[in-house]
């Protein structure tokens, strides 16, 4: 029996199951429905239905939560009910599944890489669909590579491109002298210092960003990435007012710091192999990239006509990831709008955004900052 047939079956019998229209179904009535109609549900969903029944102390099943379950939507109260019935759901873990195809094995790998709870891993594994595909990170990475190749061919330079005067003339680079051109606060993510920065960012985006997008969806991950990008350019405009910005490091560090923080917060539940070694390696690589950016900013190895790109975008992206990103990753299939902490973070980000706008309008003149002439 498919989901639509189950809907129809429940709706036809709702008057019998809930004769007083209370919005709740008695446990014994619902159990009888499951047993006598032989519902052909996938094992994970059937286990969750039984867990929902067994975990209810009041002997009632909420009709709305039942509908949300069958619609592949879960509320926080439903998650709490499932947690109470965890013994029922833990009968079979995903690692015991056999006969899986290549794609399903990859989905299982992603589930263990990203999600800390076996219940969520099983839910994701059985609910995963190819539509919509995780295209945001892939498209951003492809565009970054194409832009880099174009400028590499045009400048005949593949390393430390920022030392070429023509590089800074690009309409994509954020430059304090062009801060009135608002698109530059975003478009700088498509430009990179050189092959080393592009390779580092692209590798992390694909290794971490694609699995995150597969699990949490394009809307949440694109929001997190772009919030890191915007916070990066705005932070540079406040703290390093004479410096330009290039590279997608703000968005990359938002994704990476959110994922690493989520792993640390759920250390016992994460089942990804060699997690301690991989955590140390990721922190070393991210710290090395920040150190390289600091070195290029304050001790440029070649003569340049102006300040080199700032490193503050890395740090601000990490802050976005630890705050906004961690909440997003810990709210798998939960509504963010119903969480007070989400609105606190949104309010904080909007406050920072308004402050940065006023800063860019007035502070440069009030402080008498000597901006290098825009190329």
TrEMBL record:
Enzyme class: hydrolase
Family (UniProt): Belongs to the peptidase S54 family.
Protein name as it appears in the record: Rhomboid-related protein 1
GO biological process, one term: proteolysis
Topology class, membrane: Multi-pass membrane protein
Documented EC number(s): 3.4.21.105
Function of the protein: May be involved in regulated intramembrane proteolysis and the subsequent release of functional polypeptides from their membrane anchors.
Origin: domain of life: Eukaryota
Domain Peptidase S54 rhomboid per the UniProt entry, residue ranges: 180-330
GO molecular function, one term: serine-type endopeptidase activity
Keywords, comma-separated and alphabetical: Hydrolase, Membrane, Protease, Serine protease, Transmembrane, Transmembrane helix
Annotated organism of origin: Stegastes partitus
SUPFAM superfamilies (UniProt xref): EF-hand (SSF47473), Rhomboid-like (SSF144091)
């Amino acid at each position: 029996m498919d989901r639509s047939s189950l809907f129809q079956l429940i709706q036809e019998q709702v008057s019998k199951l809930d004769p007083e229209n209370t919005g709740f179904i008695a446990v014994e009535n619902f159990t009888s429905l499951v047993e006598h109609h032989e519902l052909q549900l996938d094992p994970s969903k059937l286990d969750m239905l039984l867990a929902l029944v067994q975990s209810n102390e009041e002997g009632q099943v909420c009709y709305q939560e039942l509908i949300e379950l069958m619609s592949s939507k879960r509320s926080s109260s439903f998650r709490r009910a499932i947690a109470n019935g965890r013994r029922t759901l833990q009968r079979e873990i995903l690692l015991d599944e056999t006969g899986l195809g290549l794609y399903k094995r990859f989905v299982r790998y992603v589930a263990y890489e990203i999600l800390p709870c076996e219940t969520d891993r099983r839910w994701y594994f059985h609910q995963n669909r190819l539509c919509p595909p995780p295209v945001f990170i892939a498209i951003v990475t492809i565009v970054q590579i194409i832009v880099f190749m174009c400028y590499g061919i045009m400048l005949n330079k593949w390393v430390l491109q920022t030392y070429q005067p023509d590089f800074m003339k690009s309409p994509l680079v954020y430059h304090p002298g062009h801060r009135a051109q608002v698109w530059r606060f975003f478009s700088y993510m498509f430009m990179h210092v050189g092959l080393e920065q592009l390779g580092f960012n692209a590798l992390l985006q694909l290794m971490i960003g694609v699995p995150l997008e597969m699990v949490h969806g394009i809307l949440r991950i694109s929001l997190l990435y772009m919030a890191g990008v915007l916070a990066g350019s705005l932070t540079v405009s406040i703290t390093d007012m004479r410096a330009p910005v290039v590279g997608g490091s703000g968005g990359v560090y938002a994704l990476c710091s959110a994922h690493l923080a989520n792993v640390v917060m759920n250390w016992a539940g994460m089942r990804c192999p060699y997690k301690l070694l991989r955590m140390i390696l990721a922190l070393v690589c991210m710290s090395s990239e920040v150190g390289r950016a600091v070195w290029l900013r304050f001790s440029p190895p070649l003569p340049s006509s102006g300040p080199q790109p700032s490193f503050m975008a890395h740090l601000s992206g990490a802050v976005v990831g630890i705050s906004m990103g961690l909440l997003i990753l810990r709210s798998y299939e939960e509504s963010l709008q119903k969480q007070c902490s989400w609105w606190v973070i949104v309010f904080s980000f909007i406050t920072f955004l308004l402050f940065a706008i006023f800063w860019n309008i007035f502070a440069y003149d009030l402080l008498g900052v000597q901006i290098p002439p825009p190329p």
